[in-house]
Amino acid sequence: MAYKPTVGAQMSSPNVIPMADIMLVLLIIFMVVTPMLTKGVSVDMVTANTPRDMTDADKDDAVIVAVTRDGKIYLGNTNIQKEDITGQVKDRLANRLDKTVYVRSDARAKYGDVVAVVDEIRSAGVDQLGLLTERSHTRETPPPPPNNGKPSA
Predict the structure, then answer these.
(1) Residues 110-118, mean pLDDT to the nearest whole number
(2) pLDDT value at position 150?
């Protein structure tokens, strides 16, 4: 007669510890990679109470010019000089139907720097220009218009 080993009790529940380890590793990877997915240069944009949604600015092929607080100008991720904006924008918009350019400026950027960038973009023949802002988190109602001493009806 042959020797037959006895089998111990079977465990019917799955072992989820390895799955939890894998999930934690994936969570850490996503937390590290997500900040790197932002397109363009990060700037502290101006907040507005009633901004207009510009969903086309989130597209991969959107032309975005950024102005930082220290006056540096970026076309996408590339640092460019103010004099080069017109040529670069013309090149990017040459074969496109949507000729919209978006400007992201830092809230502390000099007004003159932003106006100079807008002028350079306009000289490239751009008619549609979007100024990107962030939505204000406070919900303030605008004050009523003054009635200039007229009695209300």
Answers:
(1) 93
(2) 63
Q: What is the mean pLDDT of residues 11-34?
A: 87
* Domain ranges across the chain: 47-135
What's CA 133's distance to the chain center, in Å? 10
Cα separations in angstroms, 6 against 1, 2, 9: 15, 13, 10
Distance CA 88, CA 106 (A): 21
pLDDT of 118 reads: 94
Global pTM reads: 0.64
Determine whether domain 47-135 maps to CATH 1.20.120.1810. Answer: no
SS3 readout for 90-143: HHHHCCCCCCEEEEEEECCCCHHHHHHHHHHHHHCCCCEEEEECEECCCCCCCC
Q: CB within 8 A of 34, min separation 6: which ones?
A: none
